[in-house]
Amino acid sequence: MLRGVLFDLDGTLGDHDGAVVAALTAWLPTVGMVADPATIARWNEIAETHLAAWRRREIDFREQRRRRLRDFGFRYAPERLDEIHAGFLTEYRNAYRAFDDVPVALAAVAGAGLRVAVLTNGSAVQQRAKLARMGLADLGPVWTPDDLGMAKPDPGAFRGALARWGLRPGEALSVGDRHDLDVRAARAAGLRAVHLDRWGTGPYDEPHRIGSLRELAGHL
């Protein structure tokens, strides 16, 4: 029997991609760069490379930020890189918003008598601050790699979260926008999973696929 819904954060509850674009648009001109589509795409590509290394626990969160800036063309000492990134981070925090379908989904989950928690690949401090900014500080337990010692797509991240939550894998539903991190990995840990495919990018053969959190009620 289903007892809880384990939500991803970035791209699922919060508009990470929109915040990145808004932040880069505001920040890049302050460091002498143009915020055009090619530059933004390059930023995202570089970010994913180093976030993947962080998810594998090869580097810490601060170091992945520094490596991103180095690959982006900033050749400074680590402390200066931290200062530069702080400018981007301020704009990112200011731009971060919840998606407008979140209240409907949370109401559906509450109406079904289910518990809510968040499992997110991000630093504990940053991710909890995002939830607070969205008015969701009291949503439920929040687990990050800082708490668990491992990150999605390691199935152990899901098992660790559920152990702390007091649920068995078969009692939880994972909901997230990354098929590799939130769906396949969750199923490998024994959870049910729904893929939130907001932008229609697939995989199209996924049987439990929704285009909006407004459709989540049908999977509870």
Q: What can you see in these coordinates?
A:
By secondary structure, the chain is an alpha/beta fold. The chain folds into two domains: 4-15 and 97-219, Rossmann fold, CATH 3.40.50; 16-95. The chain contains nine helices and six strands, in the order E-H-H-H-H-H-E-H-E-H-H-E-H-E-E. A six-stranded parallel sheet has the order 3-2-1-4-5-6. Strand 4 (172-176), helix 9 (179-188) and strand 5 form a beta-alpha-beta unit. The model has no long low-confidence stretch (mean pLDDT 96).
Set out the fold topology.
Elements (H helix, E strand, L loop, with lengths): L3 E4 L8 H12 L9 H19 L5 H12 L5 H18 L6 H10 L3 E5 L4 H10 L8 E2 L1 H4 L6 H11 L6 E5 L2 H10 L3 E5 L12 E2 L10
Parallel strand pairs: 1-2, 1-4, 2-3, 4-5, 5-6
Q: Would you identify the CATH architecture of the largest domain?
A: 3-Layer(aba) Sandwich
- Rounded mean pLDDT is 96
Q: Strands of the biggest beta sheet: in what spatial order?
A: 3-2-1-4-5-6
Overall tally of domains: 2
Major sheet attributes: 6 strands, parallel
| Number of helices, counting only DSSP H or I runs of 4 residues or more | 9
Low-confidence regions: none
Q: What is the CATH class name of the largest domain?
A: Alpha Beta
Order of helices and strands: EHHHHHEHEHHEHEE
Tell me the CATH superfamily of the largest domain.
HAD superfamily/HAD-like
Number of strands: 6
Strand portion, in percent?
Answer: 5-15%
Spatial extent as radius of gyration: 18 Å
CATH fold description of the largest domain: Rossmann fold
Q: Quick one: overall form?
A: globular
Helix/sheet category = alpha/beta
N/C terminus separation: 10 Å
- The residue fraction in helices comes out at 40-55%
Keywords: Hydrolase
GO molecular function, one term: phosphoglycolate phosphatase activity
Pfam families: Hydrolase
Protein name: Putative hydrolase of the HAD superfamily
